[in-house]
Structures are given as C-alpha cells and as structure tokens.
C-alpha cells in the first residue's frame, strides 16, 4: 500500500507541475485573470495533496485499512476538487455541460477535509 501511495503522490505532483506550467505559459494567453487564478487554485491543492500522500506513506503507526481509506479519500478528493476546478476555469473552451458537475468541487473539498480529519483523529488516538 505504501508503494501505491508514493507512486500516486509522485504522479499527482507531476501532473500538477505539468498543469501549472500549461496554465502559466499557454492558458495565460486565453484565460482571464480570474479564470487563471481559479486554475492555479486547482494546481495548488493538487500539489498540497501530493505532499500529503508522501507524508502519509511515512507513517508506520497507521493501520493498513485506515491508510487505504485516507488514500482513497485523497485521490477521489483531488480528482473531484481540482479536476472540476480545471474544467470550470476553462469552460469557455469546452462544450461540457457544467451543471452536471456543480457539486463536484464542494464534494471533492469535503472528501479532502475528511481525509485530513481521519489522519488527525487517528494520530490523536495514538498513545505517546
């Protein structure tokens, strides 16, 4: 499981850097300041959670089942939160109906909060 967590963290981080460069160099010409700012929020939160996964992989005091739960919450949260932000920031270039994903961003954010809370509670309950 720890190998999967590290690999996923590395992949999420790599994609965040690619999308950040894409936004800063290519999309800068086509997006408004506000849209570019929105896009960058998605990149930032994606990178934060790549580091979160790396940290998670170093924990030896967390049960495998809990690790897996936190991992799944983070991955789903990043896909929903950052993914929907990328789509919303670039909506002028797609034919996608954004009414379908209106709840994706808050749901993704909620999953990320739950992942952090689960880590917090798990470590808090440990003695020492």
From TrEMBL:
It comes from the Bacteria. The keyword Membrane applies. The keyword Oxidoreductase does not apply. One of its GO terms (cellular component) is plasma membrane. It is found in: Membrane. Belongs to the UPF0382 family. This is DUF423 domain-containing protein. It comes from Flavobacterium pectinovorum.
